[in-house]
Design brief:
Length: about 290
């Protein structure tokens, strides 16, 4: 039973859309991280290793863990946090794919995450409010990345409606505007850095959609890096192919060989004239019909 479930999950990941893969990656990381935290708690051990995956507000710390600008956007530790992000990613991801490709979805997700992370870092290093918090503040979650997809979708199809729980059919543009408005209003709250990152993601999604409608894809560099990375990893896993070397024949050598072959064919034809075809051996028959025995 467990084996069947595992195989089904692997197959659905392999053959699923990029939206499915993004959801699986976020859920998988969430489950693994929380499982490790639970086990460590039994031994009274802290999960300090998680700090290396979160995005630090302090630039000096970031220099020692540059990968965190990517890892943070796939990292969740709170169930409500990941639930909201996964639902928004699923709903707006499906709508986004009606206007753009699957590669674009990944590109906007990562672009939104990077823009949100950059906004977070700049804000903490710029505004006096965060002076006392900068050394220990960290960012995690896919909210900025999902916000980018949400806003981009709203730009592509602002008047498209979705059924939203108790509110009935609501136009996408109103959902997007309310999401941004909430983040702006919540800047004064405790999670100000997170809300600022949402705004950064929203701006990235808006710019992508506006440029995309004009024929410019600002995420092409992201997809190019991902494509090269995947090919590099695939190449590293393959066994080296056996090389076969060929020696190029010179014109003089070619002419000499052809002359020898023609002379052999003439001798075979003379033998046929004098003794008949049945007098030929297998080697001579092979040479006559251009076959190698």
């Amino acid at each position: 039973m467990k084996g069947e479930i595992k195989e089904e999950l692997i197959e659905s990941f392999k053959h699923g859309t990029t939206l499915t893969k993004l959801i699986y990656i976020n859920l998988g990381v969430f489950l693994v991280v929380n499982l490790v935290i639970a086990v460590l708690s039994l031994f009274n051990m802290d999960a300090q290793w998680l700090d290396k995956l979160m995005l630090p507000a302090h630039v000096g710390t970031l220099l020692y863990q540059p990968w965190s600008i990517i890892t943070y956007m796939f990292l969740h530790t709170d169930f409500v946090h990941i639930l909201c992000n996964i639902l928004m990613l699923y709903w707006f991801g499906k709508l986004f794919l009606q206007h753009c490709t699957q590669h674009d979805l990944v590109g906007v997700y990562i672009l939104g995450g990077i823009a949100g992370g950059a906004t977070y870092i700049v804000a903490y290093n710029l505004f006096p409010r965060f002076e006392t918090q900068i050394l220990f503040s960290q960012l995690l979650g896919a909210s900025a990345a999902v916000m980018a997809i949400t806003i981009a979708t709203a730009v592509f199809a602002p008047n498209q409606t979705v059924r939203l729980f108790f509110f009935g059919d609501v136009k996408i543009k109103w959902i997007a505007l309310v999401s941004v408005a909430i983040s702006i209003l919540q800047i004064k709250a405790e999670n100000a850095g997170g809300e600022l990152s949402h705004i950064g993601g929203a701006v990235a999604g808006y710019i992508f959609a506006v440029k995309y409608k004009k024929g410019v894809n600002i995420t092409s560099w992201i997809n190019d890096i991902l494509h090269r990375t995947v090919n590099l990893l695939k190449g590293a896993g393959r066994k080296p192919k056996m090389r076969v070397s060929y020696t190029k024949e010179s014109d003089q050598e070619y002419n000499y060989r052809k002359k020898q072959e023609d002379e052999e064919i003439d001798k075979i034809l003379d033998k046929i004239k004098s003794s008949g075809y049945e007098s030929l051996n297998d080697d001579e028959k092979g040479k006559l019909f251009g076959k190698k025995r």
